[in-house]
Amino acid sequence: MVARFLTLKLTLMGNTFRRSVWQTIGMIVAVLYALGTVGMLVAAMVFVGVAGDPAWAAVAITLGGVLTVVGWWLIPIFAFGVDATLDPHRFSTFAIPRRTLLAGLAVAGLVSVPGIATVLLALGVSFAWVLEPGVLLVSLAGAVLGIATCVLGSRALTTLLAPVLESRRYREVVTIVALVLVVMIGPFVGWLANGVQISVGPEATDGGGAASTGTQLLPLFEQVASVAGWTPFGAAWSLGGAAHAGDWAGLAGRLAVALATIGLAWLVWDRALARSLERPPVGDGSGGKAKGLGPFGRVPFSPTWAVAARTATYWLRDPRYSGSIAIIPLLPVIMYFAGQSTGSFFMLLATGPFVGWILGFSISNDIGYDNTAFALHVSSGVDGRADRWGRAIPMLAMGPLVSAATVVASVWVADSWHLTMPLLGLAIGALLVSTGVSCAVSARLVYPVAKPGESPLKSPQGAAMATFVSQGIGFAITLGLSLPVFAVGITAIALGSVLWGALTVVVGALYGGLILVLAVRFGARVYDKRLPELLQQVQSFP
Amino acid sequence: MSDGTATFGVMTTPVDPSPPGSPGTQGTQEQPPHDPSAALSVRGLWKRFGQKIAVSGVNLDVPAGSFYGLVGPNGAGKTTMLSMATGLLRPDFGTSWVHGVDLWARPDEAKATLGVLPDGVRLFDRLTGRQLLTYAGMLRGMDRATVVDRTNDLLQAFDLVADAETFVVDYSAGMTKKIALGSAMIHAPRTLVLDEPFEAVDPVSAANIRDILKSYVAGGGTVIVSSHVMDLVQRMCDHVAVMAAGQVLAAGTVDEVRGEQSLEDRFVDLVGGRQHSEGLSWLRGS
C-alpha cells in the first residue's frame, strides 16, 4: 500500500512534466539548484569534519537541522495550498486503514524536490564523521530520525490546524503576516549582523581580523547548539555530535527526546486525521459581514465612481491588495537599515519618491487581479474612461497623502528638512506618472497573478516571463516619462535653492497631472477597442 | 499569454466530421438577412480556438417576447455562442443583432438592453450581496433611488435578505448563482441571456426564479436560457434550439422541434450517442 502511494506521487510528478515545456524546464532548474546546494553543503560539512574540527561539524549539523525542522513545520502553515495533491480527504471514500494511509502519506510526503533534497542533505552531512565509523552510524540513524521529525511534525501541524487554516479570515491574516515577515527578513539579518559585529567588535580589533570573528562567535553557536540539541527540533541531529564527544548519557537522553517527538507527532497526526476524516471540514456558515453599502454609499452614483468605490473596497478587503498596503509603511524602515551600513541617508531619502512610484505601479495589472469577474464590466458595457478613472481615483486620493507622509518622515529622521520640497515634488510626480502609465499599460498587457482567494505569495506557474516583460515595459515607460521631473528635482537638490524646490513641486504636480490625463485617455481608447479580448485573456489564465 | 487555445467554458469538442451542412461550406454561404424585430438575431457566427472549431456558422432568431431554451450536450458550443451573441467574446465571423442593433458595431447601445448571466466566471466576491447588486446597477449608470429600490426588491425576490450583508465569497453555489442573476437583471433589460441559470440552485429557489422569469416574459421581456435539463426546458420554454458540435440542429417552437416525441427523445435522436445495451452486467445491488 505504501508502495502504491509512492507510485501515485511519482506519477503525479511525472505528469507535471508532460503538461508544458516551461514547467519541465522550471522543474529541472529547481532540481539542479537543489542538488547544487545540497552538494555544496555536504562537501563543506565533510571538509570541516575531516580536515577541520569535527566539533564544528556537530554544531553546524545541529543548527542546520533545527532550521530545517522549523522550515518543514512552519512553511506549510504560511504558504497554504502548496501541495494538496495528496490531500487525505481525497482518499476518504476508499477503505484504507488509517495506519496504512498515514504511512503512505508520510513516505509520499518526501517525494518532492524539497523532500528529496532534505533526505540527501541529512544523510550526506553525516559523512562528516566518515573517519569514525561508529559515530557515522549513529549520525545516519539520527538523520533518519530527523527526516521523520520533519515530515511527521509538518503533517501533524497542518492536519491539526486544518480547520483553522481553511477559514478565509485566518488565511487573509496569515497572508499579510507572512508578507510582512518575508519583507522584514533582509533588514532583520542586517540588524543581527550589525549587533553581532558591535558586540564582538572591540575584542575582534584586539585579536586582529575577520578570522578571529569566527572563533569569537563559535562559543556562542556552541552554546545555542547544546541547548537546541535537547529540544524536539534538534535532538535527532545532535546524536552524532554526542557520540563523537563520548557523552553516552547525553546520547541516550537526546535519543529519548527525538523518539518522543516522533511518537507524539505520529499520535497527533493520527488523531487529527481521524477527526478530520470523520468530520470533513465544511464552511463555518457564518462568513464575513459588512454593514450597509460601505464606500458605495458615499460616492456619486455613476459608473466611474462605482469602479472607484469597488476598487477602494478591494484595497482594504482583498489580501492581494491590502498586503501591499501593509508593506508600504515598512519600506522606510527597510531603507533605513539598508542605508545604515553605508552611513549615508541617500536610500532613506529616496524612499518618498520610491513609495509614490510603487503605489502607482501597484495598479498596473488591475484587470489581471479582477480575473474573470471582469466579465461584469464587459457585459455592462462600462466605457474605458469610467473604468480607467475609477481605478485611478482611490490611488489619487490616498497616494499623495502616503507619499507626502513618507517624505516628511524620511527628512525628519535624516534631519534634512531643506530637501522636503524637492522630494515632495519628485514623489508627487512619480506617483502621478506611474499611475497614468499603469492605467494605460493595464489595458494592453495583462498577465496572470494569484487568483482571488489565493495567497499573494503564490505566483502562477509559467507566468514569470509574461510578468517580467509586462512589468519591464511599464517600468521603462514610467522612467522615461518621469525624466523631466527628475531633472528639475535633482537640480533643486544640487542647488539647494528654495525657489527650485518649489518649482519641483509645481512641475511634479502639473507635468504629472498632464501625463496622467493623457495616459488615461490613451488607456481608455485601448480598453474600448480590446474589451472582449481583455476578458478572453483573463479567462485563459491557468 | 493568451493564444486562443485556452479553455473558455467547456466547448473543446472536436467537430463531428460529417455534421448536417458541412462546416467547410457554411462560413461562405449566403446568410439570410437578420430579423430586425427579433430580440436576438444571430448570423453566421464562427469561432475557432486553436484546432477546435467551437461554433461553426450559427444562425438563430429569438423572437421578442419568447422564452427560448438552448439545449445541447456538453461541449456543444452553447457558452461560446451565447458569449459571442452578447458581446463577451469577439466572433471570428458573423455578428449578432439585439433588437435590430448590430452588437459588434454599436456595442454600448446593444448591451444596454441586454442582461447577461455568463457561466463559469467569478464575481467581485469581496463585496457583500447588497454591494454587488448596487455595483451592477451603478455600472449601468442608474440613479441612486432606483438602484436602492431595485436592490431591495431583488434581495427579497431571491430570498437573500438575511445574507445581504454577507460577502459573496462566503455564499453557497446556489446563492452565488442567484446574486449573479440579480446583477444581470437590475437594469431591467429587454432581453435576458442566462447561461445555466439553474445550476446548483435549490428547487424552491429555482421555482421562484422560474416565476420571476415567466412574469418577466408575460410583461414583454425575452428570456434565453441554456440548460442540460430537457424536462425543465420543455415545461418552461415556448421556443427551443438544439445545438451540437458547434451547430444548431433544430430550432423553433417547442412543439415544432419535438413533433410527436418528448423533447428528450427528440434531442437524443438529433444528437445521437445513446447506447442501447444491457448496461453494466456486474453492477447489481444484492
From TrEMBL, chain A:
<feature type="transmembrane region" description="Helical">
    <location>
        <begin position="135"/>
        <end position="161"/>
    </location>
</feature>
<feature type="transmembrane region" description="Helical">
    <location>
        <begin position="345"/>
        <end position="363"/>
    </location>
</feature>
<keyword id="KW-0472">Membrane</keyword>
<feature type="transmembrane region" description="Helical">
    <location>
        <begin position="321"/>
        <end position="339"/>
    </location>
</feature>
<feature type="transmembrane region" description="Helical">
    <location>
        <begin position="499"/>
        <end position="520"/>
    </location>
</feature>
<feature type="transmembrane region" description="Helical">
    <location>
        <begin position="21"/>
        <end position="50"/>
    </location>
</feature>
<keyword id="KW-1133">Transmembrane helix</keyword>
<protein>
    <recommendedName>
        <fullName>ABC-2 type transport system permease protein</fullName>
    </recommendedName>
</protein>
<feature type="transmembrane region" description="Helical">
    <location>
        <begin position="468"/>
        <end position="493"/>
    </location>
</feature>
<feature type="transmembrane region" description="Helical">
    <location>
        <begin position="248"/>
        <end position="269"/>
    </location>
</feature>
<feature type="transmembrane region" description="Helical">
    <location>
        <begin position="173"/>
        <end position="193"/>
    </location>
</feature>
<keyword id="KW-0812">Transmembrane</keyword>
<feature type="transmembrane region" description="Helical">
    <location>
        <begin position="56"/>
        <end position="80"/>
    </location>
</feature>
<feature type="transmembrane region" description="Helical">
    <location>
        <begin position="426"/>
        <end position="447"/>
    </location>
</feature>
<feature type="transmembrane region" description="Helical">
    <location>
        <begin position="395"/>
        <end position="414"/>
    </location>
</feature>
<feature type="transmembrane region" description="Helical">
    <location>
        <begin position="101"/>
        <end position="129"/>
    </location>
</feature>
UniProtKB/TrEMBL annotation, chain B:
<keyword id="KW-0067">ATP-binding</keyword>
<dbReference type="InterPro" id="IPR027417">
    <property type="entry name" value="P-loop_NTPase"/>
</dbReference>
<comment type="similarity">
    <text>Belongs to the ABC transporter superfamily.</text>
</comment>
<keyword id="KW-0547">Nucleotide-binding</keyword>
<feature type="domain" description="ABC transporter">
    <location>
        <begin position="40"/>
        <end position="270"/>
    </location>
</feature>
<dbReference type="Pfam" id="PF00005">
    <property type="entry name" value="ABC_tran"/>
</dbReference>
<dbReference type="GO" id="GO:0005524">
    <property type="term" value="F:ATP binding"/>
</dbReference>
<feature type="region of interest" description="Disordered">
    <location>
        <begin position="1"/>
        <end position="38"/>
    </location>
</feature>
<dbReference type="InterPro" id="IPR003593">
    <property type="entry name" value="AAA+_ATPase"/>
</dbReference>
<keyword id="KW-0813">Transport</keyword>
<protein>
    <submittedName>
        <fullName>ABC transporter ATP-binding protein</fullName>
    </submittedName>
</protein>
<dbReference type="InterPro" id="IPR003439">
    <property type="entry name" value="ABC_transporter-like_ATP-bd"/>
</dbReference>
